[in-house]
């Protein structure tokens, strides 16, 4: 991948994946069931998308809405299936009831991932202590990205946090790339780019027709041009 800003797009199926890649996406996040904010897709869906496009795919590991790990044995089983099918990048992240990182669940999963790159998703925006979470996860193998809006309510409210965290890049716990997503709009980009942020994640913004409609190649292209501006 080049040094240009990263544009990641949510894809539910092959049609989405092809449109996103053609529009200029650098990477896809693969999920199913956006009514539950994105769950683990089937292995068959992963395989079909992998055959359809040649950009990196990050596969969600999450079996129920919310940020509790739930059935960790089932999650481990799905991760093993996806690894066997050729998946090499993942998205995961779980909190305990008191908002602390669920290290038991996370560590069991990354043992199966065996060094694969992975994103800690927006569970960070619900954490009791963002800085503490980052420092507790700092030494976990493969963690190279945090998907975050800076606030549970979205980028509008999270801009100050995103700027502050971007300014700490390279400090312990702040080495992973910040991937901005969650209520992200085009008008946020100048502020985010000025802060040094260079990775962006879109879902609904790539689907002008809503989640029942496919990814729009043209919508992705508009975002590609905007993040490159």
Automatic annotation (TrEMBL):
Pfam families: CutC (PF03932). It comes from the Bacteria. Transmembrane segments: none annotated. GO terms for molecular function: copper ion binding. Belongs to the CutC family. This is Copper homeostasis protein cutC homolog.
């Amino acid at each position: 991948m080049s040094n240009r800003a990263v544009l990641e797009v949510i894809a539910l199926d092959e049609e989405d994946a092809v449109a996103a890649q053609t529009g200029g996406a650098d990477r896809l996040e693969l999920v199913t069931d956006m009514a539950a904010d994105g769950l683990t897709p089937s292995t068959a869906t992963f395989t079909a998308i992998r055959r359809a496009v040649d950009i990196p795919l990050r596969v969600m590991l999450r079996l129920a809405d919310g940020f509790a790990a739930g059935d960790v044995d089932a999650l481990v089983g799905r991760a093993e299936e996806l690894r066997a099918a050729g998946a090499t990048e993942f998205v995961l992240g779980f909190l305990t009831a008191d908002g602390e990182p669920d290290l038991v669940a996370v560590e069991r999963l990354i043992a199966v991932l065996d060094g694969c790159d992975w994103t800690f998703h927006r569970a960070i925006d619900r954490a009791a202590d963002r800085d503490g979470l980052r420092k507790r996860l700092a030494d976990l193998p493969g963690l190279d990205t945090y998907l975050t809006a800076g606030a549970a309510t979205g980028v509008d409210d999270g801009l100050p946090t995103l700027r502050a965290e971007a300014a700490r890049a390279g400090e312990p716990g702040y080495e992973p790339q910040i991937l901005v997503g969650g209520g992200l709009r085009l008008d946020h980009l100048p502020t985010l780019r000025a802060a040094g942020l260079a990775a962006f994640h879109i879902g609904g913004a790539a689907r002008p027709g809503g989640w029942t409609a496919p990814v729009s190649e043209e919508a992705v292209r508009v975002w590609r041009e905007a993040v490159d501006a």
